[in-house]
Task: inverse folding
């Protein structure tokens, strides 16, 4: 073919009309035609035109016509060479059934002669079918048979086509229609001893098409009765998996069995850093329509990664790109009789429980389970779903078009917090459906019978059927998911009425949080028009905002003025290492360069967990392994866990000063009394290889720590020797002294402290989500107790809080890009988790300079 570049006309350099774009020179004689043409266009100039004579007109028309023809020709050539003649490659994967063939074990071996013989026949039949369709046959390039499995015989194939761009859609359509197994077409297949049924073709999984790989690895494994078979990525665990790899594991079991597959270790490149992933298919063809899951990143060992097939086959695929090599996975599988996937049934009695198949493992694809629940005649029944995970990629929220639970014609899907569905009779039917692709861990539920006249004895019944403590009715908090506990309330004298009718505690007025939902609790307290409301409540003229001066007195008018700008330094501006100041709120470690010397992004190897966030356990408060990798447990000689702490570098911890005060003639600030455990999850499992323990070299309490008020409740501890960072041991980021935390912000507190007031400590590290409470309100809740170094954080309805034994541990604030900062240190509280008694935390930002001074961190 001619080099296309040659077709483009390039005038010699300097030629007029080329370098000057659309400006035509009116002085050039031979350009008259253009010049005049431009002038002639308006028809109003017809008279002028006549005067110039008919000869000229003919010339002009001819030139215009020739130009037109030329451009048409050019257009055609471009279309022909660029689109019509350009071929695109199309790949399809699919399978078909051979009803008049019997499966033989040798078919599992793709190098056997029997395999080759049958493959040849199937290939021939496929090509015949393609050739009978003018949208398909002419473009076929290659077809291969990749595997056979039981079910008479099912053949898995791939086909490659090369088709002109403009015919590509027609090919897609024709291949999609092959699905509907046009019998006529299939019988045309010339080969008489091969009958083809249930032929389907899918465009190849786009995930595979976009991957570029040059290393392929294939494995075929057959489950052995009563034995667990394991396999892993090449090199595991001694070396990372290869780059640019395309590995396939064909897993098989005996006919009439299904496969249970579990990834026991999974550590692949994080999903946001690259394109490495593992996909599992409920088929031997890697087609999206039968994909069960796509996995990337790293899962901690306690996460359930068990999958069950619908047939006796599974395909596991690993695709890696050129960069980022990680350890990979180890997996095991075994076969079980197909009938064990049977689910549903009849449930009777006054209460009981049931769950999706293999819960908490992933449910299999292609199941329908129906539970018919009947409770005694005189009672009604309700079902409470305690955990509910039916998520499918690509399904619009709430549409429930794929997997779902159906009760009383209503469908439930996605992720849901615990919810209740009740029936007005003594019967209820629950139907669970999973489609061909993508599975999740499913649900577990209990059913209860209740007296229809008194569904919640001694309690308030939400309209959803849920029972809540009567004291929660009209308390200002939404306890029922439908808010029915806060409707039709008479406000008490301690409450005010929102515009929407809700009653809320008076001290929530003007606290900067929209408690009413319609913001009416914050409206009366707004500044007059044209004014800005400072965080401390002061009103200043709008014009004074972001003028580089602290007009509020707390810097809040200068805190968030768009992107970082260098401004005169103030108490509230972030100071870069080069002593310039920027006026962006919390610029440190936000992955954006704000200081001209980039010092705001220095030392930011902190505050990111290595495992992907996966805990979807609603209501439970156990942490996952590695979820809070900076959490430290401080053990006191002879007594065990006594306080928490946070790792801020490989040899420094931050904790609370009060953990080390002198008491009963014991000097707890003696470092030899303490041992620090890093990477710990379960207090009973301190010898776990992931745990690193250290003795303490030095304990430095803040010199201003006040034993009575708990002001300056902070201490730093030096480890006897540095720890090694691992997935379970990562330091937390320290906030800059100017770091701001708005009231209402959600934060996390973690520790092994008591799980209730006067209770005993937890074995598994606990976590709780609590909220920043504004200082003014906190002063009214905990009068005469707070200093500038303290912040109140909690949930005012009560029930969620830190407690004895959590002291010294971290209060974590999640900032930009999911990076976590040590916002506070557990310090004290009035009891634990009481209503309107938030916990008090040492305000780390206010003591940032002291930490730096003592530790250099
Ligand atoms: N001082 C307690 C300790 O030593 C911590 C109390 C925290 N209390 C609370 N309600 N937030 O463990």
Result:
């Amino acid at each position: 073919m001619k080099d296309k570049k040659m077709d483009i006309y390039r005038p010699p350099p300097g030629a007029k009309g080329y370098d000057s774009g659309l400006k035509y020179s009116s002085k050039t004689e031979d350009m008259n035609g253009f010049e005049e043409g431009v002038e002639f266009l308006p028809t109003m100039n017809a008279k002028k035109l006549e005067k110039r004579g008919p000869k000229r007109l003919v010339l002009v028309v001819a030139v215009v016509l020739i130009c037109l023809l030329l451009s048409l020709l050019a257009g055609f050539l471009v279309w022909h060479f660029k689109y019509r003649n350009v071929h695109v490659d199309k790949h399809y994967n699919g399978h078909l059934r051979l009803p008049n063939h019997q499966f033989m074990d040798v078919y599992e071996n793709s190098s056997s002669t029997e395999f080759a013989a049958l493959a040849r026949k199937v290939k021939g039949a496929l090509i015949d079918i393609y050739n009978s369709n003018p949208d398909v046959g002419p473009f076929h390039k290659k077809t291969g048979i990749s595997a056979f499995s039981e079910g008479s015989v099912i053949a898995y194939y791939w086909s490659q086509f090369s088709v002109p761009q403009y015919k590509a859609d027609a090919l897609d359509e024709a291949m999609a229609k092959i699905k509907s197994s046009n019998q006529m077409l299939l019988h045309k297949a010339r080969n008489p001893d091969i009958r083809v049924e249930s032929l389907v073709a899918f465009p190849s999984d786009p995930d595979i098409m976009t991957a570029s790989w040059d290393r392929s690895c294939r494995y075929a494994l057959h489950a052995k009765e009563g034995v667990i078979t394991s396999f892993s990525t090449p090199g595991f665990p001694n070396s990372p998996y290869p780059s640019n790899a395309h590995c396939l594991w064909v897993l098989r079991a005996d006919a009439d069995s299904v496969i249970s597959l579990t990834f026991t270790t999974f550590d692949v490149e994080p999903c946001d850093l690259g394109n490495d992933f593992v996909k599992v298919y409920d088929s031997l063809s890697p087609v999206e329509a039968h994909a069960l899951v796509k996995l990337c990143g790293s899962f901690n060992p306690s996460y359930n990664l068990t999958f069950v097939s619908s047939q006796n086959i599974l395909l596991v695929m690993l695709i890696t790109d050129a960069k980022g090599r990680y350890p990979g996975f180890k997996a095991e599988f075994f076969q079980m009789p197909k009938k064990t996937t049977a689910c549903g049934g009849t449930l009777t009695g006054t209460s009981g429980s049931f769950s999706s198949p293999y819960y908490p493992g992933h449910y299999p694809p292609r199941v329908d389970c129906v539970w018919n629940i009947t409770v005694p005649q005189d009672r009604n029944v309700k079902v409470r779903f305690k955990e509910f995970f039916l998520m499918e990629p690509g399904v619009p929220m709430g549409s429930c078009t794929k997997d779902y639970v159906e009760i009383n014609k209503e469908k439930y899907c996605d992720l849901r917090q615990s919810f209740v569905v009740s029936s007005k009779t003594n019967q209820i039917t629950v139907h669970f459906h999973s489609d061909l692709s993508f599975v999740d861990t499913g649900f577990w539920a209990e059913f209860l019978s209740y007296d229809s006249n008194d569904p919640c004895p001694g309690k308030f019944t939400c309209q959803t059927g849920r029972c809540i403590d009567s004291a929660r009715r009209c308390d200002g908090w939404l306890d029922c998911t439908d808010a029915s506990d806060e409707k039709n309330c008479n406000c008490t004298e301690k409450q005010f009425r929102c515009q929407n009718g809700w009653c809320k505690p008076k001290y929530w007025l003007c606290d900067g949080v929209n408690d009413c939902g319609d913001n009416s609790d914050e409206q009366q307290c707004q500044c007059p028009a044209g004014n800005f409301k400072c965080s401390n409540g002061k009103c200043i003229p709008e014009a004074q905002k972001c003028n580089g001066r602290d007009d509020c007195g707390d810097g809040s008018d200068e805190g968030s003025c768009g992107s970082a700008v260098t401004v005169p330094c103030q108490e509230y501006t972030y100071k870069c290492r080069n002593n310039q100041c920027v006026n962006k709120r919390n610029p440190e470690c936000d992955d954006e360069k704000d200081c001209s010397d980039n010092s705001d992004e220095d030392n930011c190897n902190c505050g990111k967990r290595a495992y992907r966030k996966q805990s979807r356990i609603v209501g439970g408060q156990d942490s996952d392994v590695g979820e809070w990798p900076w959490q430290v447990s401080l053990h006191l000689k002879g007594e065990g866990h006594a306080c928490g702490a946070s790792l801020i570098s490989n040899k420094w911890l931050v904790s609370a000063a009060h953990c080390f005060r002198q008491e009963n003639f014991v000097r707890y600030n003696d470092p030899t009394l303490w041992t620090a455990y890093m990477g710990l999850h379960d207090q009973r499992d301190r010898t776990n290889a992931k745990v690193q323990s250290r003795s303490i070299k030095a304990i430095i309490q803040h010199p201003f720590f006040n034993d009575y008020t708990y002001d300056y409740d902070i201490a730093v501890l030096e480890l006897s020797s540095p720890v090694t960072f691992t997935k379970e041991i990562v330091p937390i980021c320290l906030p800059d002294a100017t770091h701001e935390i708005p009231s209402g912000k959600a934060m996390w507190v973690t520790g092994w402290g008591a799980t209730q007031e006067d209770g005993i400590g937890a074995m598994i590290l606990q976590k709780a989500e609590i909220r920043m409470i504004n200082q003014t309100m906190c002063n009214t809740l905990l009068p005469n107790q707070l200093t500038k170094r303290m912040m109140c954080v909690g949930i005012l309805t009560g029930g969620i809080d830190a407690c004895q034994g959590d002291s010294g541990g971290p209060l974590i604030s999640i900032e930009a890009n999911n990076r976590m900062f040590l916002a506070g240190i557990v310090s004290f509280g009035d009891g634990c988790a009481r209503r309107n008694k938030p916990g008090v935390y040492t305000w780390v930002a206010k003591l940032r300079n002291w930490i730096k001074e003592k530790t250099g961190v």
Summary: The pocket of arginine is lined by residues 753, 801-807, 826, 828-829, 832, 839 (CB under 6 Å). DSSP finds ten helices and 47 strands in the chain.
